[in-house]
Amino acid sequence: MYNFAEMKEANVRLLSSLQERMRAREFDVSDIIYRPDSPPIPETTGQSVYFTQVCGFPLMKCFRDQYRLLAAPIYSFEGCIGATHRAFFLVRSESSAVTLADMSGATFGCNSLLSNSGMNLPRLSLAQLKDRRPQFSAIKITGNHSASLDELAAGNIDLCSIDCVTWGLFQSFRPDAARRFRILEETSLSPTIPFVTSAETSDAEAASLVEVLHDVMNDPALQETRNILGLLGLEPPDMVAYKMISELEVEATRLGYANIV
Prior knowledge:
261 residues; D-Maltodextrin-Binding Protein, domain 2; 2 domains; 5-stranded mixed β-sheet; 4-stranded antiparallel β-sheet; 9 helices; 11 strands; globular
């Protein structure tokens, strides 16, 4: 899940409410704990994952048999349309670049090679530039989007691609820091990071999780919590749309740009 330090309390409230509602339905959730230190892109979802969000690209590429989708969140941030989001190419505010084509020789910061917003979506955008595609001098793997922004601010990279939900949260929690950057260009739309549960979760419990999620999204007592998290609502997960995330890699390869370079 999105886990800026400033949103920890809101995440705990949302998850505690979900847990209380599942307990009221007589599901044993006594051993479920919140893990704010979970990696943004885990090595596995696995049987131990009861409820989380996992980036759509590794879900489709690596974790197909390890999860089931519950719902697609709708966010309030710029760049989101319904249960979709996009990535923003960010540069420092003082950068002279006008388009991506101006970034030849730059260092590109990537949170992970398995990231949809940090690699998969920007790769396709770059692939579609064809003859105007910039040649980067280096690619630096940062580990997460926050680290990419830190590296950009420090001048260690010149460009990175951040999903618009992370960017919206960053602007909300750290407005002064956000003013150091600007959006250069944006990628195409992609489904938002879904709420998922382990593939081992029973049909009945997964169905209850979906119902409880909708209860949480409609509870007036949790309106402030949802506002902090930027959550507007939920849509049923569109499996066709999520499977298309992997097709972006195929299209970039067809255009001769299998790897960001």
